[in-house]
Amino acid sequence: MQERFAINGPDYSYDQLTFTMDYEISDFITDSMLGYTLYDGHKCKDGDGFGGDNDINENEGYLLHKIRTDNAPLGDGSGKRSIKISSQIVIPDIAESPLYATDSENYGVVQYCLRFGIWNSDRNEPMSMEVNFLETLVTLRLNMNGEVGIEAQVSNVDPLLKMNSEGVAVDAYICDYDDNTVPIMPTNQGQTIRVCVTPVPEVLASGGLMRQIEKFDFFRMTPNQVSQSAILPETGGVPADPLTIVQCRPGSMICAFETLLNANFFTGEGIVNGQGLAYLQLGGGDVSTERRMEEASTDLLSPNDVLRRKPTPFSIRISLKTSESLGMKLTSAAPSTFTTTLMTTAILGATLTMLLTIG
After folding, report:
1. What is the Cα–Cα distance from 276 to 197, expressed in whole angstroms?
2. Residue 86 bridge partners (DSSP)
3. Domain spanning 8-148 has what CATH number?
4. Per residue, what are the HEC states of 67-88?
5. Neighbours of 189 (CB within 10 A)
6. What does the pLDDT look like over 283-302, one tens digit per residue?
7. Residue closest to 92 by CA, chosen among 137, 142, 149
């Protein structure tokens, strides 16, 4: 499901005020399941909960646009398709449009949003549902009197980097083999525990995905101090011993590991805590090259370079009960709301901010 409805990109190019966004989707998606909308601002479709921007697919000629598909045959989702959406600013018409304003330096500023979406069936059918989307926010600074040039800076990671630096970028929960939350499960000695780790919805909406689980340790303080490593640190996610199996593909929404707690944890009722570190990334697969972004320190770093430098922590809390209370059941405090959302929508949309300067 995740691979069938995934959206990768966009890669973008510029030529004579025309911006082309290249998206990669699976060959399970037909042309009738695709759609895009342009909006006259950065709230896009839904905004902040109090209304979004206006649909400007039909406008007075200040923003021309079109979509080009690759006409690939229908597949099972294992193959890839390439979709191109171009939008062209028309000068001088843009100066009279709702997209245009001037800033404190008397530059012209143009802002708009491109939302590319995938539906679960023909989007024109009454019961069809948009299951994934990617919103690209475009800001342009124009000097109408100077020579036309362009500097491009991609920065869709401000919310992601902020939450990553604050250590609140991922959630962890006890899960089954379909990655669904398991609120109650047996904890008899000899049974395994499976932990799923995923970016929080705000990070997913900024394009953040899992890269790897860096480390994880279980520990219990009473009645005796017990600890057990599941994933070793600074190894790229290597299991600590044969009791643990790690499943983590770079660019996936969820990474998971399954482990067998040793007998010392099962000494009556109590709390078992688990703490770990995870690395995030932007984009699917093993990302190796990125456009560059400028940090406050003026060092040029890609978003993935920044994310590689700092892992984000996560934790779980498990209550062990005796047979007199719930018959040796294990409860997890993992948030079930997010998992329900994930199950019903399949994939959450993301927002990409594009800052372009023409001077």
Report:
1. 10
2. 20, 66
3. 2.60.40
4. EECCCCCCCCCCCEEEEEEEEE
5. 11
6. 666 655 343 333 333 344 56
7. 142
What token pair was written down for 178?
Answer: 């379909």
Per the listing, tokens 């700092």 go with 310
Q: How far apart are CA 47 and CA 310, in angstroms?
A: 30
pLDDT bin (cut points 50, 70, 90) of residue 278 is very high
Residue 96 DSSP class: G
Q: What is the DSSP string of 226-266?
A: EEEEEE-TTTTS-BSSTTEEEE--TTBS-EEEEEE--GGG-
CB 78, CB 6: distance < 8 Å = no
Question: Residue 268 corresponds to which tokens in the numbers above?
Answer: 């009556």
For 10, 209, 227, the CA distances from 66, given in Å and listed in that order, are 15, 29, 58
**Cβ-based neighbours of 281, under 8 Å, separated by 6 or more:** 208, 209, 210, 211, 250, 251, 287, 304, 307, 308
CATH label, 161-334, candidates 1.10.10, 2.60.40, 2.60.34, 3.40.50: 2.60.40
